[in-house]
Amino acid sequence: MRITSKHQQYVDLIQITDCHLEHDSLTTLASVNTNDSFLAVLDQVASETADAIFATGDIASGGSHEAYQRFITATNNLSSPVLWLPGNHDEPAIMSAHKPLIFEAEFNNWLVIQLDSKQQGQVGGRLGGEQLQRLQNTIAETEAEFILLFIHHHTLDIGCQWIDRQKLEDGASFWSVIDHPKVKAVICGHVHQASDIIHQGVRVISTPSTCIQFKANSDDFALIDLAPGYRRIRLHHTGQIETGVVRLDGNRFAADLNSSGY
């Protein structure tokens, strides 16, 4: 699909991720009401000017119809189109029944590609040969000058031993496929923390959750007292990328730091 940008010189995007909505609006995750934190993030996002919003997986903790319907009802109030992709906690078939999964969007001279790293019954991610071949073909054939990739799972170690065991299983094949000068960034969710590095000349970025945040550089599951957030992304017509994380003010969504899992 092609989305008309409000500006010729750049494209403004917003990423939200790892909402972990439950089947009802009252259930909490590590003492955080994920529905309330999600809606608070959306209230902040509503004040932004964006050409599109990308929700990069783990929309729902249990993949329920009720959770997806609440997500759609809430995001329908936003002025920007919202595209989503599945995470390991999601059920893609149920998602598709509520809203199509759109995996390519063109903005000015940029192509944004969403990848489905969900493995049924598995926590870790995998793209598989068919999707990797399709990605390789798209990169080779697109007329866009620059490419941005969204994916749920992280493609490189983040420095947390427990969650690095869940990263993209076919990451080496993925990085071989995207070894192309048009590819400028890979942005993920899943790790519930912010990071921004360069690998093979590509920006590799992760984004905080709209609910609980994982403690960086931890061997075992651990949370940190940081507020929910989202990411702003500006894609310049020159291929440069500006990006930064925005967090909610205050501590109204403080997590139980003694929680042993999620």
UniProtKB/TrEMBL annotation:
Q: Which domain of life is it from?
A: Bacteria
Report which residue ranges the record marks as coiled coil.
none
InterPro entries named in the record: Calcineurin-like_PHP (IPR004843), CNP_phosphodiesterase-III (IPR050884), Metallo-depent_PP-like (IPR029052)
Matching entries from Pfam families are given as: Metallophos
Q: Which SUPFAM superfamilies is this protein grouped with? A: Metallo-dependent phosphatases (SSF56300)
The chain positions of domain Calcineurin-like phosphoesterase read 14-193
Ranges annotated as spanning the membrane: none
Keyword entries, A-Z: Hydrolase, Iron, Metal-binding
Its EC number(s):
3.1.4.53
In alphabetical order, the GO MF annotations are: 3',5'-cyclic-AMP phosphodiesterase activity
UniProt cross-references to PANTHER family, sorted A to Z: CYCLIC NUCLEOTIDE PHOSPHODIESTERASE CBUA0032-RELATED, PHOSPHOHYDROLASE
Q: What family is reported?
A: Belongs to the cyclic nucleotide phosphodiesterase class-III family.
- Name-wise, this protein is 3',5'-cyclic adenosine monophosphate phosphodiesterase CpdA
Species of the source: Sinobacterium norvegicum
Q: Lineage, please?
A: Bacteria, Pseudomonadati, Pseudomonadota, Gammaproteobacteria, Cellvibrionales
Q: What gene name is given for the protein in this entry?
A: cpdA_2
